[in-house]
Every structure is written in structure tokens, then in C-alpha cells.
Specification:
The chain is of the alpha+beta class. The chain is 13% helix and 26% strand. The longest helix has 21 residues.
Length: 441
């Protein structure tokens, strides 16, 4: 504190105040930025050593007879000026140290009180001309001017030390108003940790745009720039997300090892690179026979549904049965432009339910199709709703819900031309097909 009363060079022992702050900021480019800071600080101080006996307003005591203490809450908006990026060096590098200047405007409220040194009694003025609530809280604007030095720990964290002076816009901060000083100034020094958000590998504060331009134009000198690829995978370190892949390992464009089956085990460690597995099993799937059909899961195309070895563990249904299902399905009719099934189709649907129930381990698609009248999106929606109506009816007739899946293809799969009414009628249909391993089920 440097006002009517002060922290240092006082007749008493010096007061060291403490405080806390938090801020959020953004760099608009590598030189200019902005930040908002909120803070709390304790304050205190006494009369200056060898001070003359200035009178203090609103108390009968002199300046040498009082000290002050209080609390301050405030916020400020300042510009950030990155001094380290003002001049080029001709080298592309990320510095470990950064220097910056800060200035702007702030506002704070404070509860500073005058205390008589001899008795410890708080001096409460009966009438303050500027602030009638001076017994409680006062407030004022101030202008901060600071210098800061930062040390980059890693991509996310920096440590920052700042120090500076702030000019208060009125003379109440130290609770003493005298002819000694027309305004109050205060110095503060802060130490904090900065966390940098965002996905950039190199943050603007630590990259000099002039150096980038020099290097891009080829003017950086032969020994100032080097494309490093420490693991030799063909991806430069600045773009490589994994700089320690073993020699000869194939990598993606970002430098990470290829993982063909996407099971979180890279191919060079994966004993089963084309089958999803577990890391603890070196990328191979667990060996077992979930459906009890005599084929281990790692070679069973349908590991949860029993089937013969001749069909890779998947169930078999005679072709004649599928033909019968689709022959009957031709007799499924719907209300015009709706998904409501006409009652005359119920008998045929009941027969379809009986056939499907004879193959409880087989899964079926119920596919809806339309002709080309109407737009594509409407036809697609109508075909899906009609297929779902058939599935819901079959479930009411006792078919296991796990056996059926509905799909709608709209007009995309005609079986004949849509140029005639007869052709369009054939294209408006429901088909029943098998769910096969190659369908991704």
C-alpha cells in the first residue's frame, strides 16, 4: 500500500497481506489478448516512518497515531500484451519462458477501517462527505499496470508470476483522508497456475508468428529449422500423436499405430488383428461356445445362435420355407397411403407366424417396399412404418420379438418397372429375408 498510510517503511512492523484470485482469458493472436480477473485480498498498514503529523479527517487523531486494515473484493478487465512475441528470432521453437504486460480497468469494494495504535479502537467517522456508507463498504475504480513472467510446464499448464502497481481513483482505500496524499496506490505480486484449454498442440502465447513466417518463406537459415521424426514413422514430431512407435510399425496419418479391428490393441501387438478382442488376451476374443453348437465363439459367425458347423455356426432354414414365406407375404395389404393392415391379410399373417415359430433360433428381416409415386423421404418412411406394423402383428401371434427386425427401403429396390399400374402394384410389397452374419448382425 502507498497512500496516506503504507505497508512498508512504517513505524510499526510491515504488514504483509494475502489474497486469492482467479481469471479467464483468451489470446486473440500471438501478441494481443484479454482477461477478466476476480480477486479477494486482505489489506493493512501503518504510518510512514518519520512522517509529519498530518491531520486525518473525521477523527481527532493524527496520521502517526492510526493504522488501517480491511478486506477487498474486486474484478478487472485488462488487455494482455505478449512482449516475447514482438520480435522474431528466426527459429521455430516453443519457449519455456514468456514475458507479458497487462493494463486495463478494475473496480473493487473494500471495508478498510482506521484503528488507533495505542488503544486498538476503531475510528468510525460520523459523517463522510463522499460515501455515507463508509462505516461498511466503499467502492472505487482503479487502473492496474503489471508485468508478468510465465514458465511453461507442459502443453496444458504454466506457472505465472506477476507484479505491478494500481492507481486508485479516490483516497479512501486506506481509510485515511489527509493532505499528505491525494490518491492511493497499491502494489501487488501474485503467483498462480494457468490451465490452457483448447485442442491446439501449441498455444498462441508460446508461438512467434514472425518466426513462422520466416521459416515458411525459407529465410530462417540452414541450421534454424529441422523436421524431426524421432520414431522414424514418416510423421514429423509436431504432427505425431505418438512419437515412440517401434521401428517398422505401420501408422495412421497422425502417427498412431494402425488398429485394423479397432479393439484398442494396435496391430503390432494384436495376435488377432482382424477380430475384435481384449487387451489382456493380446487382442484376441475370449474362446468359448456361447450358443453350445460345438463351435468356439472365435470361429462362430453366429456366436449367440446355434447352427451347424457346415454353415459356420449359423442356423439353416430350407430355401423352400423362405419361398413359402414370401409367397404368402404377397397377400399382405394395407390401407391406402397408411400403415394399417387390411383385415383380409390376417389369415396369411397367422400362417407366417406359425412358420417362423418352427425356427426359434433363426432371425428374420421384415422389409417394406413402395412404388415410385411420392417423394423419396415419404416413401421411405411409409415402407418402414408398414414393415413395423407387420412385425408388431406377428409378435401378437406369439413370435419372439428377438426373431424379427423391420426395415424400409421405399422405392429404392423395385422388382419391375414403375411405368405401369401393374408394375407399381408388384413393387408395393413386403418381403421376409434371413438375418445373415455378413449383414453385420
Amino acid at each position: 500500500m502507498h497512500g496516506d498510510l503504507r505497508n512498508f517503511d512504517t513505524e510499526e512492523a510491515s504488514d504483509f497481506s494475502y489474497g486469492f484470485y482467479a481469471y479467464a482469458g483468451k489470446m486473440f493472436n500471438a501478441i494481443l489478448g484479454m482477461e477478466f480477473r476476480a480477486s479477494y485480498t486482505s489489506i493493512g498498514g501503518g504510518p510512514q516512518r518519520f512522517s509529519e503529523g498530518f491531520d486525518v479527517r473525521y477523527t481527532t487523531l493524527e496520521l502517526r497515531e492510526v493504522r488501517f486494515e480491511g478486506e477487498v473484493f474486486g474484478g478487472r478487465l485488462v488487455g494482455v500484451f505478449n512482449l516475447s512475441n514482438l520480435a522474431p528470432t528466426g527459429r521455430r521453437l516453443q519457449r519455456k519462458w514468456n514475458f507479458a504486460a497487462y493494463t486495463g480497468i478494475g473496480y473493487h469494494q473494500y471495508s478498510s477501517k482506521l484503528i488507533e495504535i495505542a488503544t486498538g479502537e476503531v475510528q468510525r467517522g460520523a459523517d463522510f462527505e463522499v460515501n455515507p456508507r463508509r462505516d461498511d463498504w466503499a467502492g472505487s475504480w482503479y487502473v492496474p499496470i503489471e508485468l508478468g513472467v510465465s514458465y511453461r510446464i507442459n502443453r496444458r499448464f504454466d506457472i505465472e508470476l506477476r507484479t505491478g502497481v494500481s492507481i486508485n481513483a479516490e483516497d479512501h482505500l486506506d481509510a485515511a483522508i489527509s493532505d499528505k496524499s491525494p490518491f492511493d496506490a497499491f502494489f501487488d505480486t501474485s503467483l498462480g497456475v494457468r490451465y490452457k484449454i483448447g485442442g491446439k498442440r501449441r498455444h498462441l502465447k508460446w508461438v512467434n508468428p514472425f518466426d513462422e513466417a520466416i521459416i515458411a518463406s525459407g529465410g530462417g537459415g540452414s541450421g534454424n529449422f529441422e523436421l524431426r521424426d524421432r520414431d522414424g514413422d514418416g510423421v514429423m514430431d509436431d504432427l505425431d500423436k505418438d512419437n515412440f512407435t517401434p521401428p517398422g510399425v505401420k501408422v495412421y496419418g497422425d502417427g498412431t499405430s494402425i488398429d485394423s479391428d479397432m479393439d484398442q490393441t494396435p496391430d503390432y501387438k494384436d495376435r488377432c488383428p482382424f477380430k475384435k478382442g481384449l487387451p489382456e488376451l493380446n487382442g484376441c476374443p475370449p474362446v468359448g461356445d456361447t450358443d453350445g453348437d460345438g463351435l468356439n465363439d472365435d470361429v462362430d459367425d453366429c456366436p449367440t445362435i446355434p447352427g451347424p458347423k457346415s454353415n459356420n455356426g449359423c442356423p439353416v432354414i430350407p430355401t423352400s420355407v423362405l419361398q413359402e414365406l414370401n409367397y404368402i407375404a404377397k397377400n399382405i395389404y394395407f390401407e391406402y397411403d397408411k400403415a394399417d393392415i387390411k383385415p383380409r391379410s390376417f389369415g396369411d399373417l397367422n400362417r407366417i407366424a406359425e412358420i417362423i415359430a418352427e425356427f426359434p433360433s433363426v432371425q428374420f428381416y421384415v422389409d417394406g417396399h413402395t412404388d415410385s409415386k411420392g417423394n423419396d423421404s415419404y416413401n421411405s418412411s411409409l415402407s418402414k412404418r408398414r414393415a413395423q406394423s407387420v412385425v408388431e402383428y406377428l409378435i401378437t401371434r406369439g413370435v419372439d420379438v428377438e426373431q424379427l427386425q423391420s426395415r424400409g427401403f421405399g422405392e429404392s429396390r423395385p422388382i419391375t418397372s414403375n411405368n405401369t399400374e401393374a408394375g407399381r402394384q408388384l413393387n408395393r410389397r413386403v418381403e421376409i429375408t434371413l438375418v445373415r452374419p455378413e449383414d453385420g448382425q
